[in-house]
Amino acid sequence: MLHQASGSSSATEQAITDYLGDRLISIIRSHNTPSTIWRFRAGKQAYVLKAELGSATTLQRELRWYLRAAAVGLPRGLFVLGQAGSAFTFLLLRQFGDTATLDDAALTGRAAGDLGGHLRRAAAMNATLFRRTRRGVPVEVVHGVAARRIDKRVAEGMSHPYLLPLLTGRTVTVNGIPLQGLVRSWRDVADRESAVRLLTQAEVGLIFGDLHCGNILVDGIETEIVDPRGGPLLPMAYDLGKLVQSVEGGYGAIMTGSYRLRCVAEDEYEIEIDMPPGYAALAAWLRQWLGDHRYQQALYQAAQHFLAMLPHHASARRETLALALSGILQFQRLREALAG
Ligand SMILES: Nc1ncnc2c1ncn2[C@@H]1O[C@H](COP(=O)(O)OP(=O)(O)O)[C@@H](O)[C@H]1O
Ligand SMILES: [Mg+2]
Fold it and tell me: CATH 3.90.1200 in the chain, residues?
């Protein structure tokens, strides 16, 4: 395999596919990550091989995350083995269930209590990890790290002219309602010390770091999490924000193209996101489970998550507009939640 890695990526993919032969179940490719996933069977167990060519920064971090989690005593979970190399990195996991995610379960209309149980179990796994690794950090430092990241992403986003009205506009009309543009919404909170204090935890730890509902796997009443993001320690609200981004912001639906978007004018849009049927009730469940304060903190993170991902998706214009509009709506919800 390492030898093949010096050839073209399609030759390498073909080599892995050929090697697996009739053990191969399917290949999963998500459009916004550079890795490829092979599902295959060996004996009675099904496995997932996630592999990426080149420096594979994301997958190398993911692998480091598993090693770090093991170092703090977390059970091995699905992790079997992995290897990071300069030309090729891979990760081998046991397959969990039939690969269905919480997004998939919600699409089938499962009850909110059932979906909520999976969210609670996923959040509990994250909390265990956090408890074992947490350390106090001044609010200014925690927020400063986030703010520098957002400011950088905003600057990158500005290089895409079609995004300018949504980023810098005083007003963006969404579904007939005039709302504040993204940068103003962001600065509105980030420049107010009292708001920053209210919305930022003075504590960081090791968490999954990408706990959206497409990374939460469900099998009956059992839950697992995949696709952790290795990197700096983070506040727990970061992942609670990922949950809110999925359940309220329709992140998964946007990623699968399940939305309709109409541009009425440069700063006026209509958007309808096909939220999975289970999510309306789950959103209410999540809000209650979080409580007012944690919900506000999570909303602030969710809005930032939408903002942060714009430059990386920018070549897919409609998708990026949908993400930006959902970000604007999340900031509006935050304003409403803060106004009480
Ligand atoms: N260990 C696993 N067991 C079952 N399904 C998995 C497993 N790992 C990944 N998957 C399936 O593949 C999808 C993409 O995997 P993920 O690691 O999230 O990759 P990506 O980086 O492309 O988001 C998941 O949403 C899930 O459906
Ligand atoms: Mg994923």
Answer: 102-339
* CATH 3.90.1200 holds for 102-339: yes
Annotate 230-256 with DSSP letters as a single string.
-SS-B-HHHHHHHHHHHHTT-HHHHHT
- What token pair was written down for 84? 């990071």
- For residue 329, count other CB atoms closer than 10 A to its CB: 22
Q: What is the DSSP letter of 88?
A: E
Fold annotation for 4-94: Phosphorylase Kinase; domain 1 (3.30.200)
- Neighbour count for residue 233 (Cβ, 10 Å): 18
Ligand 1 atom index nearest CA of 99: 5
Question: Region 265-287: what's the mean pLDDT?
Answer: 95
Angstrom CA distances, 189 to 195, 201, 216, 333, 334, stand at 6, 15, 30, 13, 10
Segment 288-302, tens digit of pLDDT:
999 999 999 999 999
36 Cα–ligand 1 center, Å: 10
Q: For a ligand 1 pocket test, name from 227, 255, 309, 313 the mutation site with the most ligand atoms within 8 angstroms of its C-beta.
A: 227
